[in-house]
Write the structure tokens for this entry.
Amino acid sequence: MIATSFSFYGITCVQSYMYFKTSTHDRQWFRGVIFSLWILDTLHLALITHGLYYYLVSNFGNFAALVGPTWSILAQVYVTCINDLIVRCDLILISIFGRLTAKNYFIATAIATTSLLTFVFGFVFATRAFSGRTFAYFSKISVECSLWAIPSFAHDISSSISISP
């Protein structure tokens, strides 16, 4: 799993490098978004790596350590929410609002709403998870987890509808 993550991160780094080397004509705000996404991806991988190191190396054989999530595992949820919101907002700006008509106004609104709901519910879930200190506590906040997943699913459906002819 971690080897796959590092492989994809390597691909992301190469793509980012190639983009900044060849796409000098893009607007500064768009280049800033690409750079921000690369930084968030780097932070995300660092947090996941810390969590894995904590469980697999630092606490090898310590079954009591498996009771609760590390701060880094929970913090990566925030990073994921921010990353997803940026990507989804970019998709809205580029693909929908670039050719906004009365027909796709409803879909653009649905995509924007579900993106914001996913972001908010993700932050609520992560914040509540930090207060629990154990994986068992996750069963008590399963509603927040479901509320995080439902708008994400609705966003994927809305996005698919928006790109269909």
User: Anything to note?
Assistant: The longest helix spans residues 28-58.
